[in-house]
Amino acid sequence: MFKLLEEISGASVSFVFEDVLISAPERATVAGALLCNGFSAIRRSPVSGAERGPFCMMGTCFECLVQNMAQAGVEHVSGATVWNVDEDGNITYSIDSHARKLRGKHIIIASGAIERPVPLPGWTLPGVMTAGAAQILMKSEGLVAQNAVLVGSGPLLYLVAAQLLAAGAAPKALVETQTRAGSRNALPHAWRALKDWRQLVKGLRFFGALRRAKVRRYKAATGIEIIGRTAAKAVQFHAGGKKHRIRTDLVLLPQGVVPNTQISRALALDHRFDEVQRCFHPVVDVWGQTSKSVFSIAGDGAGIGGAKAAEFSGQIAALNALVQIGLLTDEARDALAVGTLKERKAALSIRPFLDALYAPPLDFYCLRTR
To answer: Hey, which of 174, 248, 316, 349 has its CA 20 to 30 A from 83?
Structure first.
């Protein structure tokens, strides 16, 4: 299911799991160590008792590179779990099992995005994970998914497939759910997308690499089911007028990302449903200001725009925060933000094209039963 990269070295640790001695690199998580040693199921559902395995691996935290923050008098708190934010700007969080509290005059929420969970028959079986989970295991622990079948659509599908290919573990197949209707809907946005032609070229390179490696691609797949009684054994679907069944013990589900709205929902900020991205996101203005004056939102937590756009949104939200706490005038903010607003607009130029092309099929929202 997973194989350790050859270049990963260093000290190892051992522990016993279900009477089996497990050995793994010192930096591995427990879940990663078990997956590398052939354990796809590591617990049971407290409701049904069915076996479950690692799914998203989001418990592993990648800290952003922070430069020159100490010199600016900014305290950087890493490894924190925020468990309460109130309307007065009080934030309660924990570090190493110790609770702490602070208060801000203005709070910028940068919660980012999470992978879109899409239920389909068999998705809770051990051996079924998000594509991001496989990516995290590869980056943080050097564990590379073996003979994986990727089921879904969107840029993340091709990115993870290309990363697996580069690591010497070509995916067994790509089962793609985007439809011809998506291609038609994307056409009106193609000209604007050319403004970010570098991203388009990057995508074409992914396709070229997959084609040269002869990775099978099944397009416009429907009726997708993951087959298995206690763990994933195969993927079954219809494509090209035929019924297909691919044997595999590892299925990765990339179906795009959606804003992480846990904090914004807990604060009862205004949200709306995006008919194109097919998800809820907070209502914000051009500055990232929300429906409550104490809170702004920057980046993908306010709507999916990508890494470059998120960086510019952070800068814009910071300028707005200075206005909210009385350290900057509206006029000064507007003047300072002119260049950044233009850069963000350019970074978002490809977004309508991608959103239309890889819109999740509506039938994915209707869980089928066998």
So the answer is: 316
